[in-house]
Predict the 3D structure of the following.
Amino acid sequence: MSVIRIQGLKSLRGEMKIQGSKNAVLPVMAAALLHEGMIVIKNIPRIQDVFCMIEILEALGCQCQLEGHELVIDTRGLCRSQVPDEAGGRMRSSIMLLGPLLGRLRQAETCYPGGCVIGRRPIDLHLAALRQMGVEICSEGETIKAFARNLQGTDLSLAFPSVGATENALMAAVAARGITRIRGAAREPEIEVLCRFCESMGVRIEGIGSGFLTVYGGTKLHDCEFTVPGDRIVAGTYLGALAVTGGELCLQGVPATHMAGTLGALQQTGCICEIDPECICARMDGRPYPVNLSTGPYPEFPTDLQSVMLAVASVADGYSRIQENIFEERFATAEELKKIGAHITIKGGSAHVIGKYPLVGGEIWASDLRGGAALVVAGLASEKESRIHGYSYISRGYEDICGDLTALGAEIALEED
Ligand code: UD1
């Protein structure tokens, strides 16, 4: 088992190109199935969730070749509609395969999706949208079986702007006959990326970036090459690290326009950010100021950075409040932060934090991806050594968090236990 060992209180300094986005690349890989041919995806993050998706695509009959950060998917051999249970259960994004499999093969079978344990993760909105498009769905134990003799474009209205449900509906709409209108669509940048990818295969979509998408389905698709943008959550994690250590960072490859909610939160801490379209430069002097944050659908502050900001608030100079509105169990990280000296009280959906600088450091356990990254940030603000277990959660989404932070001046290493 791997353990991250951190000797904290070193300031961060330097420039870095941020890895490709996990939440953008996974639906793009799934959407590749909609086309029968060759798809090239560039700026692939080399993370466990991507390896898992490759395993699934190969099990379905596709051929995948990953070289460095470029992935070539040959989807001509797609012949199976059943997502393998073990790999599908490991990753929430396996549910993304329903839409494209129905599009190509008119049937799909998958187990209820896995992923991080951060609260109830229902898929009712995905299934309701697909049903409205003519898909018949039944559950047998833990398995979902779906058939679509006639995948038909229709008018959909999502009761909540779910990212996954929007992506699934969008992918099914690409293969459906006629026009699909999706009202109440999620506006996260990853949806825009998926739309752009579909456009590069030849699909016409209107309303990209808005909550009302119009998809012209049934077009003949063609081969394409597509580059995934940088990961706004990884960039936010490293900016959170800067907020607790001080120093100066320039992060490249992530559109700053996608990070307004995050940059607003960092500005509350006293971090000074200068942005141009492709580069975010941030400077932090001294201890962070406290924050008052609420998570919400884009463009609000992202739930994926709530745990990181909880770590920042733990060392801030005063009282912070962080409200979680998307995933109720995302406060599990608070218990680990408390073990190394943080003062956090959870009441309902809010964390009340009285900052203490520095934290003590010690032995702590990650139990989800972003919570794991938050523990790393807390370790960087601790006076004694920290040992963070549960690296398998962190490597689902961070290519090389230890290598990156070492390059920026932190004393952090991945060691075999
Ligand atoms: C995606 C991201 C995840 C991020 C989340 C919110 C990927 C792989 N994951 O997850 O990192 O934290 O968006 O930005 O892109 N809901 C329902 N019914 C449904 C679907 C969702 O009630 O059918 C609820 C969920 O319980 C949750 C909320 O909607 O409370 C948001 O979920 P959703 O936007 O669907 O998140 P994911 O797509 O799972």
